[in-house]
Design brief:
Elements: H1 2-66, E1 74-79, E2 82-98, E3 104-118, E4 121-135, E5 141-143, E6 147-149, E7 155-158, E8 161-163, E9 167-169, E10 174-178, E11 182-184, E12 188-189, E13 202-205, E14 208-209, H2 221-229, E15 233-234, H3 256-260, E16 263-266, E17 269-272, E18 275-276, E19 286-293, E20 298-306, H4 307-312, E21 321-325, E22 332-336, E23 345-348, E24 352-356, E25 367-371, E26 373-377, E27 397-405, E28 433-442, E29 464-469, E30 485-496
Parallel strand pairs: 5-8, 5-28, 6-9, 7-10, 8-11, 9-12, 10-13, 11-15, 16-21, 20-22, 21-23, 22-24, 23-25, 24-26, 25-27, 27-28, 28-29
Antiparallel strand pairs: 1-2, 2-3, 3-4, 4-30, 13-14, 16-17, 17-18, 19-20
C-alpha cells in the first residue's frame, strides 16, 4: 500500500513537471513571438522614419533647385524624438530635354539614402529620383495659385500658360490664347471665380473656340478637350502636374537673393561687394521720394534708383543682380530712367517696386523685376498724383522685362484683378498702349501691398494691352540672371534594408 502511494505521488510529480515544462515552453514561445512581433514593429517604424528622411531630402533638393542653390550632400531631421540622417549623391551629369512647344527642362538624377535606429531596430531606405527644373520665365503666365484670365477689352496673348491650381477664363469682348501649352494642375473653368458667372465674350485657344459650357466638371471634358486641342489643354485629370516653386521668403533680408546680389541698396545706402559705396555714386543715383498709391490709399516713401546714372557708374552689378529694400520704412522702390541697361539685370525687392517709363527698350537685355508687387508708371507720370488730383494722364510706354509679382486672393464678390492686372496701374490709361514683352509670374501673396483691386474710382483705367511672351526667353542663355525655377520630381527605384 505504501509503495502504491509512493508510485502515485511520483506519477503526479512527473505529470506536474511535464505540464510545467509544456506551460513554460508555451510561455517562452509566446514571449519569443511577442519579441519577434516587437522587432517587426520596430523595423517597420524605423523604415517609416527612414522614408520620412527620404521625403525631407527630396524637399531640400527641390528647394535648392528652385532657387538655383547648391544641392546639399546630406542632412538630418528629428521625427518624434528620433534622429534620421540622409545622404544625397548626384549620379550623372545633368541633361536638358525640350518638349514639342520648345519648353526646356534641366534634369538631374540623385540617389538618396536615409537611415535611422528605433528601439535598436535599424531602418534604411534607398531611393533614386529624377528632378526636373525649368525656368518659370519660359511661360507667358505661371501661377502658384488660381490663375484668372478675364480681360474686358479684346485681347490676344501668346505663350505657355500654367497654374499649380485652377484656371478660370472668360472675356468681356474676346480673348485668343495663341499657345501650344495650357495646363492647370487641378481644374479648368469657363467662368468667373468671384461670382461663378459666365462672361459674354468668346474665348479661343489657337483657332478653336472654347464652349462656355465646357470645363473640368463636364462629364465629357477629357474626351472633348483632347479632340478639340489635341493635348495642348490639360487639367489634373489629364496629366497636368504641379511644379514646386521658390517661396516668398527668398525675397527677405538675408534670403537667397540678398545673399547673392552684388549690388545691394538698403534704406538709401548702396553696398557693392559688401562695401558701402554710397558716397562714390553720382548725386541723384539714389534719392528718397514719396508717391501717392491710390490702391493702397497712402503716400508711399520710395528709394528712387536712377538707372541712367547707375549705368555710367562703376557699380552696375556684374552678376546681374540688384537687391533693394527699405527696412526702416518698408514701403517701396522706384526704378527710373531705365530705357537702357548696361547689362542683363534682375531687380529683387521684398517691397513693392514702381517702374517708371520705358524700360529696357534700347539695346534690350535679359531683365526681370521680382517683388512684393510690381507697379507700372507710364512715360507721362509726373509724381503729382494725390487723393484730390484725379487720375494723371498716361502716355504710351514699353516694358521689356519679366515680372514676378505678389497678388491677393479672389474671394466671393471680390476680384483680385486677374492676370490682366498682375502689374498694377495708377493712371488714366484709356486709349494708351502698355506694351510688355516678357513673362508674368505670381508665386506668392503680397505681404505689404495688400490694397484691394478696384477699377476706376481714382485708382486707374485700363490700357490697350499689348502683352506677349518674350520669345528670347526660350533660349536659356537669354534668360534674366537668377531666373527662378519650377521643379518636379519623378521617383524611380526604391529599396529597403542594408
Amino acid at each position: 500500500m505504501r509503495n502504491e502511494r509512493g508510485i502515485s505521488l511520483l506519477s503526479v510529480l512527473v505529470v506536474m513537471i511535464l505540464v510545467g515544462g509544456i506551460a513554460f515552453a508555451f510561455f517562452d514561445l509566446s514571449m519569443n513571438e511577442a519579441r519577434a512581433l516587437d522587432q517587426v514593429r520596430n523595423r517597420m517604424k524605423a523604415t517609416y522614419l527612414a522614408e520620412a528622411g527620404i521625403e525631407e531630402a527630396m524637399f531640400r533638393i527641390r528647394q535648392a533647385m528652385a532657387g538655383q542653390q547648391a544641392i546639399p550632400t546630406g542632412g538630418s531631421i528629428t521625427i518624434a524624438g528620433t534622429p534620421v540622417t540622409f545622404t544625397i549623391v548626384d549620379l550623372v551629369p545633368g541633361w536638358t530635354e525640350t518638349d514639342p512647344t520648345g519648353l526646356q527642362t534641366l534634369y538631374r538624377q540623385f540617389e538618396i539614402v536615409a537611415h535611422t535606429r528605433y528601439n535598436k531596430a535599424l531602418g534604411r531606405v534607398t531611393r533614386v529620383v529624377v528632378v526636373g527644373a525649368l525656368p518659370v520665365f519660359q511661360f507667358l503666365a505661371f501661377y502658384e495659385n488660381d490663375l484668372e484670365i478675364q480681360p474686358g477689352p479684346a485681347a490676344i496673348f501668346h505663350g505657355r500658360i500654367h497654374t499649380n491650381q485652377r484656371l478660370y477664363v472668360g472675356a468681356g469682348e474676346s480673348m485668343k490664347l495663341e499657345t501650344e501649352y495650357v495646363q492647370a494642375a487641378e481644374t479648368m473653368h469657363r467662368r468667373r471665380k468671384d461670382d461663378g458667372s459666365i462672361m459674354t465674350g468668346w474665348v479661343e485657344i489657337g483657332s478653336v473656340p472654347w464652349d462656355s459650357m465646357l470645363e473640368s466638371s463636364s462629364p465629357d471634358w477629357p474626351v472633348r478637350a483632347r479632340a478639340l486641342w489635341e493635348g495642348k489643354v490639360k487639367d489634373g485629370s489629364m496629366g497636368a502636374r504641379r511644379m514646386d516653386i521658390p517661396s516668398a521668403a527668398s525675397l527677405d533680408i538675408n534670403g537667397y537673393y540678398h545673399q547673392c546680389a552684388e549690388l545691394i541698396v538698403i534704406d538709401d545706402q548702396a553696398y557693392y561687394g559688401g562695401t558701402n559705396i554710397t558716397t562714390f555714386l553720382e548725386p541723384g543715383t539714389l534719392q528718397t521720394q514719396s508717391i501717392y498709391d491710390a490702391r493702397e490709399q497712402i503716400h508711399v516713401p520710395v528709394t528712387r534708383v536712377n538707372m541712367r546714372l547707375l549705368n555710367s557708374s562703376a557699380y552696375f552689378p556684374r552678376n546681374g543682380l540688384l537687391y533693394a529694400a527699405q527696412i526702416s520704412h518698408p514701403r517701396g522702390i522706384m526704378i527710373d530712367e531705365g530705357s537702357e541697361l548696361s547689362g542683363p539685370l534682375t531687380i529683387v525687392s521684398p517691397n513693392p517696386v514702381y517702374v517708371r517709363g520705358d524700360y529696357n527698350t534700347l539695346n534690350k537685355k535679359p531683365a526681370a523685376v521680382i517683388s512684393d508687387a510690381v507697379n507700372l508708371l507710364s512715360n507721362g507720370w509726373t509724381g503729382l498724383k494725390s487723393p484730390a488730383s484725379g487720375l494723371p494722364e498716361a502716355a504710351d510706354t514699353t516694358y521689356n522685362t519679366a515680372i514676378l509679382s505678389g497678388n491677393l486672393d479672389t474671394t466671393s464678390g471680390a476680384y483680385n484683378g486677374g492676370f490682366e492686372n498682375l502689374p498694377r496701374f495708377h493712371e488714366n490709361w484709356t486709349g494708351r498702349a502698355c506694351k510688355i514683352r516678357g513673362s508674368f509670374v505670381n508665386l506668392w501673396r503680397s505681404r505689404l501691398a495688400t490694397g484691394a483691386w478696384v477699377y476706376g474710382e481714382g485708382r486707374y483705367t485700363a490700357p490697350n494691352r499689348d502683352w506677349d511672351f518674350d520669345s528670347d526667353f526660350n533660349d536659356p542663355r537669354k534668360l534674366p540672371p537668377f531666373s527662378p525655377m519650377a521643379v518636379s520630381v519623378i521617383r524611380t527605384t526604391y529599396k529597403e534594408g542594408y
